[in-house]
Design brief:
Rna Polymerase Sigma Factor, Chain: A; Arc Repressor Mutant, subunit A; 2 domains
């Protein structure tokens, strides 16, 4: 894989990979690092990338595996000295001419509640959910990326939606 091939992969799938990384790690600096590590690893594994068969899924599975490895490696540090999130709430795109401060505040609160609910899910449910909604992958692509059958992906998405519904209903009461 040459630099042209890498540029083409980044152009085609960069936004999806970055959005997925951002949802996994929850802050911009770590998402940027994971994004770069993903494409570096993709360069190392370029002989395994099938350009005709789900390269986006391959890239997202690399990102997922790198993230899981980093979590395992630094778990003891996080227990001793947990990281704090940067003040990067993504509210800048909500600031439109017609948006009221109340609308922005409610929208930000709702977004934070949904993220908190998604973060409370276990990894088996969270990763397919992020792949489906943030990276906009199909069920078949997710299954191929995670090496699980499409039926299992559907089941995990169903379970994660039910868990989110329970969480959000409990928060609203």
């Amino acid at each position: 894989m040459g630099s042209c091939d890498l540029e083409e992969l980044i152009e085609q799938h960069g936004k999806s990979v970055y959005g997925f990384c951002r949802m996994l790690v929850k802050n911009k600096a770590d998402a940027d690092d994971l994004y770069q590590e993903t494409f570096l690893k993709a360069m190392e594994l370029s002989h395994k990338i099938d350009r005709e068969h789900n390269p986006k899924g391959f890239l997202l599975s690399i990102a997922s595996k790198l993230w899981k490895n980093k979590l395992r490696k630094f778990a003891w540090r996080q227990r001793i000295a947990p990281r704090e999130e940067l003040n990067d709430d993504g509210s800048h795109h909500l600031l439109r001419d017609h948006a009221t401060p109340e609308h922005i505040a409610i929208s930000n609160e709702l977004r934070a509640t949904i993220r908190s609910a998604a973060d409370s899910l276990n990894e088996k449910l969270k990763i397919p959910l992020y792949m489906y909604y943030t990276a906009e992958m199909s069920i078949e692509e997710i299954g191929a990326a995670l090496n699980i059958p499409p039926g299992t992906v559907k089941s995990r998405l169903h379970k994660s939606r039910n868990e989110l519904k329970k969480y959000l209903e409990a928060k609203s009461l």
